[in-house]
Amino acid sequence: MASRLPPLNPLRAFEATARRGAVSAAARELNVTHGAVSHQIRALEDSLGTALFERGGKRLKLTPQGALLLPAVTNAFGEIAAATALMKQPETCGDLTVTCVPALLSLWLIPRLNTFTDQFPGVRVTLIASNDPDNLRSLDTDVSVLYGDGNWPDCWTRLWSHLKLFPIASPTLLNSRPLRSVRDLSDHSLFHGDDGREWSTWLAAADAVDVVRGRQHFMSDARLSTEAALHGQGVALGDTITASNLIARGELVVPFDLTVPANDAFYVACRQSVRQAPIVKVFIDWLFASLEESLPEPQTSARMILRGRGGRAADLHHPIAAPAKRRPASNPQRKTRA
Q1: How far apart are CA 35 and CA 40, in angstroms?
Q2: 0.85 surpassed by pTM
Q3: Following DSSP, what letter does each residue of 173-216 receive, concatenated?
Q4: pLDDT above 60 (res 63)
């Protein structure tokens, strides 16, 4: 019977046996004989010059060398299975799982998602709000849009967009409590999407580090601080990507002309093994094409909105020029805009 069996990959036999804990169980899973599995494991151990299992009980136990080999083998077979499945599915059909920075997902990607799904109606999209680089190693994730420095080894990574940060507020709030100068920020609650470093950077660039700060509230990500500003509860820091639609619609205004660069940037990333999969490629192409569409400059939008309101609101915009040679402090330890 064994002579009629197809060739059995020794690594596959090792992986199945380690996962099942017994040669007999691995043999049933692989639909081969017990002897075939044992032979392949012995051949693998001979080629490596080390034992992979401790033998003697009902269940096999991995040696330290076997425990070192198993994760790499398991991941390799998972990658092969995923690539094979992608090769078999049509270019524009199938499941696509995308993880994305929460603020970018809510305020930029979802409002535009229909332009992708209308173009590729056979794609079923799963969106997960996350800025965790560990998603890049998960076989359950196809594409990740991350905020960070782009240094994620063994992955395909491409810069998507740099960011500039600036204060944002609700027009309703500013009608009742004007921001005629940066000093007026002391009369407002400040909302943070990080540990406070972004506001410190902006105030330093505005030569206003000594401004007395009133109430301050800290959020886990920029999406929440932006929503707080939308509800007229205070002033947050927006960015040139996620706040652009809200500014264009007049839901938020930009009271000052000063912007500062964010410490990090948005990147699109994925595992090397899925980069050329058709369904992944069309989504990444769509991400970059959508970014290239014309977006209003935040300060221009703010001026238009404020001018259009007239009266009291028209007096709210008093531009602050950035100091000639001042550079905002960089704080690489904390990832924000997440």
Answers
A1: 9
A2: no
A3: HHHHS--SSGGGGGGS-EEESSSSHHHHHHHHHTT-TTPPP--E
A4: yes
